[in-house]
C-alpha cells in the first residue's frame, strides 16, 4: 500500500481532536506495511475513543490466548 493510509486498519474511529486524528492516520500508514501471517485489519485491530486516552489494540494470533491483545493507549 505504500505510504498511504488504509482505513481498514484500526477502524471505528476518526479521533476526537487533531492529535488523535493524526495518530490514527500515522498508525494506519505504519500498519499498511505490516506483514504478519494471519493478521487482518478488520478482524484483528480496533480503535476506541470512548476511553481516555484514545485506545487501539491488535490481536496477535500466535500468542497464547491470555496474552493475545497488544493494547496501546
Draw up the topology in text.
Blueprint: H1 18-31, H2 41-44, E1 45-48, E2 55-59, E3 69-72
Antiparallel strand pairs: 1-2, 2-3
Describe this structure in words.
The protein contains two helices and three strands; from the N terminus they run ααβββ. The longest helix is centred in the middle third of the chain and has 14 residues, at 18-31. It is of the alpha+beta class and 73 residues long. The chain has one domain (18-72). The chain has a three-stranded antiparallel β-sheet. The protein has helices at 18-31, 41-44, and strands spanning 45-48, 55-59, 69-72. Helix content is 25%, strand content 18%. The protein is globular and about 35 Å long. Strand 1 (45-48) and strand 2 (55-59) form a beta hairpin.
